[in-house]
Amino acid sequence: MPPPSDTSTPCLAAGCRWGGTERDRVILYPEGAIKLQGTGRQVLERCDGRRTFGEIIQELQKEFGKTDPDKIRADISMFLEQLHKRRIVDY
Amino acid sequence: MMLSNPLAVIAEITHRCPLHCVYCSNPTQLASVDSELSTSEWNDVFQQCGKLGMLHAHFTGGEPLARRDLVELVSAARGAGLYTNLITAGIGLTEMRLQALVDAGLDHIQISFQDSHEDVANWIAGAKAHAHKIELSHAIRKHKIAFTVNLVVHRQNLDHLDEMIGFIEQLSPDRVEIAHTQYYGWALANRAALMPTPAQVERAVAIVAETEKRLAGRMRIDSVVPDYYAKFPKACMGGWGRKLMLINPSGKVLPCHAAEVLSGMSFENVREKNLCWIWQDSPSFRRFRGEDWMPEPCRGCERRSEDFGGCRCQAFLLAGDATATDPACSLAPAHEAVTAAIHAASFQVGATIPTASSFVQLQKANQNFWRYRTNPE
């Protein structure tokens, strides 16, 4: 499965949703849950099916101004690809 | 050691079921219809589950749809913050009721298929359910909920596992569970007819591995290995009283599906005690937590924190002692009980699938081969 392209619009897959408490947010999915902190949470909160992958990258590159933008892109792309493989994210 | 929260509740809301699967995980002593918890009692249970920090509620049975208040129960669990999963054979699920369940907040639905061939599937289930399940699978895909197909495998269907996987692919679930039969309850009574041969198991492992690779990104494959064939035992339920609570139709709280077979143990009921106390302090949930209860060779084994000595029910059923090492472990003093069962199964005569027009006839025609699950009083 290829990584997301700039125009793809990532969203949570069917049957996956946010849960837990405001402090400990988790993504709930069939037979499991992932605790999300820090960057992972910031990425997934933007995967709303409206923002494109390109827009999400831009927003987070601004947020983390000091980090190499290419590294941010590569990390987020890999993160979403892994979650796609586990049927948690669609794009 | 700090005790963590349970992660999920398995809500066995009724033992009534229109199917009679020969490997049913329910106990052979089923809970009676009269003793079932009411809607408001379940509502209260789910509130307690949410407060205990649980994340998932698995609705199972019997057949959960046999409860007329299922929509209310799903809504109650969802209202308590739980992720809701319905494990069903689909009998009694119309498109309208499905819509009502989705509106009530159902997150995930799981349908089990007995086989890809209709005649074999209906023979195993002791009911004409197969065609309806296919129809229902198509209806489910019209909704934005997660869909899992579960396939229980054993001696009678493993020879065409590849065909069954092909069949499931056409139903396009998000997730497939390929589960080798586990020998408790009805499955243990029918073990001789269900136990696969070594060659079947070896082939199945290869097919599952190939399928996982091929479907990666399209369908998630979760497989349950046959523990009689494993070198080490499974970490049953993630360890006794470590992750899950099962509540049976009459409110009894168990650490697993089979624990009621453990003679000499008594389990608490939600009608008398609150879940938090049952989880943290009840003698039954504390009984096999940690390592103090462990015998040798578990006590000195480096795997003890991974598999927790295996399954207590299996130890009781096969070695006659709930505190023994799980006989599925190759290091267990009672391992012979497992190898003997495998050996005996290789001499079983194959079955012929009878054509019977009613369940009673089917039961009669198969009485020397296996016992169908019956219904509670």
List keywords for this structure.
heterodimer; A: 91 residues; alpha+beta; Arc Repressor Mutant, subunit A; three-stranded antiparallel β-sheet; two-stranded antiparallel ribbon; 3 helices; 5 strands; 41% helix; 19% strand; B: 377 residues; alpha/beta; nine-stranded mixed β-sheet; 15 helices; 34% helix
Task: Report on this structure.
The complex is a heterodimer of chains A (91) and B (377). With 91 residues, chain A is an alpha+beta fold. Chain A has a single domain (11-86), classed as Coenzyme PQQ synthesis protein D (PqqD) (Arc Repressor Mutant, subunit A, Orthogonal Bundle), CATH 1.10.10.1150. Helix content of chain A is 41%, strand content 19%. Chain A has helices at 38-46, 53-63, 69-85; strands at residues 11-12, 17-20, 25-29, 32-35, 89-90. Chain A has a three-stranded antiparallel beta sheet with strand order 2-3-4, with no helix packed on it. In chain A, strands 1-5 form a two-stranded antiparallel sheet. In chain A, β2 and β3 form a beta hairpin. Chain A is globular. The mean pLDDT of chain A is 92. Chain B has 377 residues and is of the alpha/beta class. Chain B has helices at 39-51, 70-79, 95-103, 118-125, 130-140, 161-170, 185-189, 191-194, 198-215, 275-281, 283-286, 304-307, 312-319, 336-345, 359-365; strands spanning 8-12, 56-60, 83-88, 108-113, 146-153, 175-180, 220-224, 244-247, 253-254. Chain B has a nine-stranded mixed beta sheet with strand order 7-6-5-4-3-2-1-8-9. In chain B, α1 (39-51) runs parallel beside α2 (70-79). The N and C termini of chain B lie far apart (43 Å). The chains are: A alpha+beta (91), B alpha/beta (377).
